[in-house]
Prior knowledge:
Growth Hormone, Chain: A, mainly alpha
Amino acid sequence: TDTETERHTAALNMNTLTAVALLHCFLFAVLVRSAPVGPASEPPAAFKEAAERAKTLVEKILRDLPAVHAATVTTEGLTLDPSTETTNLQLMVTSLGIPAAPVLKPLSERFTLDMCVSRMMAGGQLYQGLLGVLSERLSGLKDLRADLRDLLTHINKMKVAAQVSSDSPDQNQRLDLASRLHGNYEVQVGVHLTLTQLRSFCHDLIRSLRAIATYRPRSAGTR
Length: 223
């Protein structure tokens, strides 16, 4: 009958509309998934400026370290030449309770900008604390400590600009060093090891600061 035909036609039209709607949804989902998200966001200008100033200061510290070492470490055999390191000196690292600096890795999805900047801060605080203990036993570390203090100021500005929320771990290890400096030899070795490790950490800082300047988070469209 005409009524049945109309119902059949209406059902076909409804099915067609439903199919078209589903097709549109599918095509839209495909386009959204495949379309580029757009260029990764640039680091804030304040962050880049603070990172550049931090890098300049780290380069200054690296230039000054040989002179600081020569002025403070007078014990024969303790030099900044890595080839002169002995097993005994490595044992003294443990004996004096001098901790290793936080490890700085290449930026990635697993080692984020937050982690990198936080470890920079933790490392700077570590050496600021160690030099503070050592400066109570000998002179010649004042300017280096001032540079480290300024470096921490710039790294903190990086944290604020990048909205890094994670806090640096408290560096209680400096108290261990203070209680183990029994004589002049321990003080000399402590200064030598601290300056040697600081130099290595500064090289890592330079690499990380250079990488940060050009780092762009990988967009979802590239996965």
